Amino acid sequence: MDITAAIARGAHQDFAIETVQIDAPGPNEVRVRIAGVGLCHTDLVARDQFIPIPLPAVLGHEGAGVVEAVGADVTKVKPGDAVIIGFSSCGACPRCADHLPSYCREFPVLNYAGCRADGTSALHQDNARISSHFFGQSSFATYAIAAERNVVKVDPTGLRLEILGPLACGLQTGAGGVMRSMACSAGSSLAIFGGGPVGLAAVMGAVVQGCGTIILVEPVAARREMALELGATHVIDPATGDVGQAIRAILPDGVDFALETSGREQVVETALASLASHGLLGLVGVPPRPDSAVSINLAALITYGHRIIGIIEGDTDMDGFILELIDLYRAGRFPFDRLIATYPLDQINEAVAAQARGDCIKAVLLP
Questions:
Q1: Could you tell me which of 314, 286, 336 has the C-alpha nearest to residue 184?
Q2: Domains, the chain, ranges and CATH?
Q3: What are 73-98's pLDDT values in tens digits?
Q4: Is the peptide bond before 56 cis (omega within 30 degrees of 0)?
Q5: How far is CA 155 from CA 22, 28, 51, 73, 320, in A?
Q6: What's the pLDDT score for residue 263?
C-alpha cells in the first residue's frame, strides 16, 4: 500500500516528503497507523551517517499509533489496539533473558541495519529499496511495520496517543537512567548535564526517586526554568563560569550521581570530576564523532572509587517501564507533556530547526 514518509536521502540534507510503498506485515509483525512520532537527536545522527544506515532511509523511532493489521503468528496485539513502538531485540540472547533488551546481542543489526533480520526491507519506492526498520519501526511515516516484540499495548483512555511515542526512547532513557540504571536513592545528590528531553526526563525521574539535591547544567534559560518547575533544586548556566566549581559550591564533597546527556568530551570530564567518593557517572549522550574519547585520571578514579557506566534506553524492559511511566503521568508525577510541541510531518525540517534553536524541547510529528 502507498504511504507518506519523510525520507533521508543524504547526510546533512533536508528530509523529503514522498510517497513510498509498504509491505504487508510478516508472520510476527504488525502494521501500525502512526498517530505521532518523536523527533530525536539519534534520528539526525543516523541521517548524517554517524549511524551508517544505508540511505535513502525512513527514520523515526519514537512512534505511537493504532494497530491496523497483524501477521499470522501475532498474539500480543490485535487490530484496533493502541501501541507505543520501541526498539527491537531478539528475545533469545542472555541479556534479553535478563529483561535487559536494550543490551541485546543483536541490537545493532536489528536497529541500525535498515532492514529485517533476513535482510529484506518493508519499504520500497517504484521497485527501488528504501531502508526501513530503523529501531525496528521507521515511523517518520503515516504507517510503520514493527515486530510484535517491540510494541507496547497501552490503554489510551484520557491520554493523547499522538504524544506518547517519546516514552519509547528519549524519555525512558532519561528517567530510566536515574530510576533503573543508576537507581538513585532517596536523599541522594544528582547532577544532570543537559536539559533536553533526556535531561528533563531525568529531573522528573529524580523527583520520583526522592533525590535530595537535583542540579541541572544547561545553557538555555527556558530549559533551566522548566527544570526548576519540574523539581530541580539548583540550575547552572555553563556560560557563567566553571561548572565544576559551581557544583562544588553547592555540594563541597561532590555529587553521588551524575548523568551526562550531551556526549561532549569536555562535559563528560566535568561530570566525572563533579563526583563525590564512590560516585557513579552514567553516560547516555551520543558522542559527536565515532572516535570521541575522554581523558581519565586513573589514580583519581581508583583513589575515590569513581564508577562509570554506559546506559542504553534507561535499562528498560519495554512493556514494564513504559507502562510505569504512563502510570506516573496519570498520577501527575511525570508530566512529560509539558516538554512537547507538535508539528505536522510535512514540517519535519522546520521542527528540526526549531529544536536546534531551542524553540521547543521535544518535537513530535503528526502524520
A1: 314
A2: 2-168+335-366 (3.90.180.10), 174-311 (3.40.50.720)
A3: 999 999 999 999 999 999 999 999 99
A4: yes
A5: 27, 22, 34, 23, 14
A6: 87
Q: For the whole model, what pTM was predicted? A: 0.95
Question: Alpha-carbon distance 110 to 96, whole Å?
Answer: 13
Dig out the grid coordinates for 46 from the structure: 543516523
Q: Which cell goes with 150? A: 517491540
What is residue 296's predicted lDDT score, i.e. its pLDDT?
Answer: 86
Exposure of 294 by Cβ count < 10 A (0-12 exposed, 13-18 middle, 19+ buried)? Answer: middle
Q: Which residue is associated with the grid cell 533536508? A: 14
Grid coordinates in use for 121?
A: 526491507
Residue 343 CB contacts under 8 Å (≥ 6 apart), including other chains: 350, 351, 354, 363, 364, 365, 366
Question: What are the grid coordinates assigned to 81, written together?
Answer: 489496539
Instruction: State the residue for C-alpha cell 491520554.
Output: 159
Regions of the chain with pLDDT less than 50: none
Cα 141-166-163 angle, rounded to 5 deg: 75
